Amino acid sequence: MRTHKAALSRPAEVPGRALAVLVALAVALGAGFVLAPSRLAANGSEGGFSEQRGLVDALRPAFVAYWQSGDRRFPPDLERVVDYWFRFHVVKGVLAGALLIVLVALGVLLWKAFLRSGGPRGRLALASAAGVTSVLALVSLAAVMANIQGAVAPFSSVTSMLPLGTPGGQLAGAVGEIRQGLAHYPDTSGRNAAALQVMVDDFGRYHAVLAVMASVVAVVLAGLSVTAWRRFAATDRADGRTRRTMGWFGVLSALVALAFIVVAVANTGTAADPAPALLGFYEGGW
After folding, report:
1. pTM of the full predicted structure?
2. DSSP code per residue over 214-232
3. Looking at the predicted structure, is the pLDDT value of residue 8 above 60?
């Protein structure tokens, strides 16, 4: 017992070099996530896509041409935009994944230091830093999932850049025809039926991949919650700080897992019947 109390009273030993390296990596990866993807995804002919306006200006006529063609295959201009958007999400996904790993490592380091810390000021600083890091890790996880989703279904992802709320010119005509086709889907025919089928299938895939990822994350978080509660039960009552920390981890992990379960269920339903949700999207409600 004396040894245990002495251990609790020792000041936190935060590995300074490891902390500095992880913080530097997190800052660099965060900056790269914001600044690098558009440049790394573009090639010489797509330099204009590094600006959102250039991407939208290229997407609008290419999308209209695809719809008017009625073909399943994308015309070259649209394929160029979709390929760029795929690479964009791959780059962002890799950077977000690396950032998530760094933030998890940093969070583990800070929480361990918090459990060993002595003075109240040190505990407060470490708890605050660890809490912020944990929130940023969740944000990074969401970014990883969003970019995997965008890479798996880049066409559905990039069409979210279209000004569907206020379409004009030929885009307005195409959007009107798409809405009409989706309202009667799958009872559609005519020259646009094949293109509409591609759009519905891709939109279903867009939501199916999110449903799978959300399910996996929910299972992992549920497992972490169980682990935290087991640690809570196994910890001596004299170590109140560890028990409280494990209890909070158990509760919060379970709550976040429930949120991901809701996401998984909602996206599973959309993936099973994507046409109504896609109609809502083209009506400007998504």
Report:
1. 0.89
2. HHHHHHHHHHHHHHHHHHH
3. no
